[in-house]
Each structure stands twice: as C-alpha cells, then as structure tokens.
Amino acid sequence: MLDSSFDFVLNENTQETAPSVAAPPVPPDDEALLDAYSQAIIDVVDGVGPAVVKIDVWHAGKPVRAGSGSGVIVAPDGLVLTNSHVVGGASRVELMTTEGRALTARVVGDDPDTDLALVRVDAPVTLPAARLGDSKRLRRGQLVVAIGNPLGFESTVTVGVVSALGRSLRSSNGRLIDDVIQTDAALNPGNSGGPLVSSRGEVIGVNTAIIQGAQGICFAVASNTAQFVLGELVRHGRVRRAYIGISAQQFTLSRRRQLAAALAQESAVMIATVEAGSPADRAGLVAGDIILALDGTAVTGADDLIRLLAGERIGRKVEVETLRGGELRRLSLVPGERAHRG
Fold first, then answer.
1. Which 3 state secondary structure label does DSSP give 60?
2. CA 177 to CA 322: how far, in whole Å?
3. Which of 90, 203, 236, 323 is least surrounded, with the fewest CB atoms within 10 Å of its CB?
C-alpha cells in the first residue's frame, strides 16, 4: 500500500510539472568548433594512450604491493618514464599496458631532485612509444591532456589548460624542482608519472603532484627537464649535477629591457632565492637578478640552466652574465656538486 501511494505521488507530481522547454539548438559554427575540439582530444588519446602504462611496485621483504602509478613509454624497446616517488626504492616493478599485457621491469635510475625515474622492461619487446615535445614552446592557456591511472581507474583521460609556467615545486627529498608546469587538468593519486600531452600529441610534461584540498591546481615536470634527466639516467644511472645554490624561474624580457641592454633573447631566468653560503651567494648573486648566459651560452629558461649545470662544470670556474636593475653584470663562480639524496 505504501509503495502504491508513493508511486501515485510521483506520477501526480510529474503530471503537474510544467512541460520542459527544449534547449536552444547549437549554432552551426559553434557545433563545428565543438566537433573540432572533441576530435583534437580523441586524436591525442588515440596517438599517445597506447604508450601509457599502469605501474605497480613492491618493496623488498614485503609481500603486499607498495603502491602504483602511471608511466609513459618513450622508446619502443620498453623504456618508460615515470616519477621517482612512484618507483624509488622498488625491488620489483610490474607494468600493465592498455592491451592488458603484464610486463616485469627494473629501475634503470631515479632522480629525486626532479621526481623523475626511468624503468626498462626486462623482456625483449616492441611497444608503442610517445614523443617528447619542447616544453619551452608552451603558452599559458594552451590545451593539454593528462592520461593515467587515477585511483586505479586505468587509461583515464582529463583535459585542461596550462595554468602557469616556470613554477618551482618542492620534491619529496626537500629539493626545489624548477621549470614546473601548472595545469588544471584533473589529477588524482595514481596519475603520478603519466604524461601531460599537447594538442600536437607530444608529451610536454610528466605529471607529478597535486595539492590536496585544492581545486584545479596540479603540476607536471617539464619535458625539456625530463629529456635531460632521461639522457643522464640512460648513460650513468644517475644525474650528476653542478650546484650553485639558487631557485629560479623563467622570465620574459620586456621589449624595453631588451632594447636598453641590447639583448637579442626574449626570455631568461630570474633568481627567486639564494642559499646562504652557496657558490651563488659568495659570487654576489641576489634574488631578483636575471641570469642571461652561462659561459657565453644563452639561458632562456630554467631547463637551460639545469642542462648547463651538468657534471662537467663541477669545480670549474663558470662565467655568469646577469641583468640587475637594467645593468649588465658579469661575474664568475665555481659550482660544487649537488649531493644525491634519496
């Protein structure tokens, strides 16, 4: 009886409800734009999606899985780029492809300073691989696609824009990661290590972090940084770095600055902080200084700085060209070696 009364009330209310008004038709021009937008996302997912893998890790002496994340295949022979915090310290790594193929892998090397790591599939394989793009070409507002395995939901796609460039983010070992991309493409635990992809189908970042409780504030390590770290890990199994003791971010030089200082380059790096007692501090660099070049090579972004401060510059005098208050300055410093901490 109770169920019948309830049904009657619902039906009665439904009958008294005003007739719904049909949504206005989408204008043909807007419909074409929406179709083009959707097709661009579909093309990106079809092109890069097969190169994204789910990663499960185990630690020595522990029978239960220690965690999981995502990764992106960057070479057909099974070389996979992911986060250091996903696979660092793992004794066993297993990958799952989008086709459901399970593969065992080993950690080639990891770099906690950039939260990046490289793993390689044990068996001889030929797998679909993604292409790393040039993150220096990114612009705020540019469309990006994140692909990964958030909360265990495999092959999930989210879409957003580049919210900001040149951010600094503190890694799990306390170091500041420079040249980080901020995006509003939704990321959740499990997306870590997955690719951030441009509309051209190029990987322009490796998703690394979210801010718990925040809405639409997520981060990815820029692909140019990843390219450098990948090469070092393949060659040496670790990244040997020169250390000068600054955190910095990319800085766009205004036309006025360029003309006043007779500069050809359009961007450089601005120092955010200088560590007390560091080589940069001893040389006289301060926050707000703009680094233009190292040893005559232009520095147009934080990724340039990271690449130029490689192992061969440790203990060797380096000439630094800076801009302070519109005045060009040249000074020298001797980088130390950054301690590798896990």
1. coil
2. 22
3. 236
| From 56, 70, 84, 85, active-site residue | 85
Q: One of 163, 171, 192, 223 is an active-site residue; which one?
A: 192
Which residue ranges of the chain lie beneath pLDDT 50?
1-17, 342
Q: Residue 68: in which H helix or E strand, if any?
A: strand 67-75
> H or E element: which one contains 207?
strand 202-210
- For 118, residues 6+ apart whose C-beta sits below 8 A from its C-beta are 79, 80, 81, 82, 107, 108, 109, 110, 229, 230, 233, 234
Nearest to 209 by CA among 183, 175, 233, 235: 183
Given the residues 56, 110, 113, 115, the one annotated as active site: 115
| 115 a catalytic residue | yes
User: Which residues make Cβ contacts (< 8 Å) with residue 107, sequence separation at least 6?
Assistant: 87, 88, 90, 93, 117, 118, 119
Question: Which ranges of 111-252 would DSSP assign to H, the alpha helix?
Answer: 223-236
| Tokens at 224, concatenated | 């140019």
Cβ atoms of residues 68 and 149 within 8 Å:
yes
| Amino acid letter, 302 | A
Give the Cα separation of 301 and 136 in Å (integer): 8
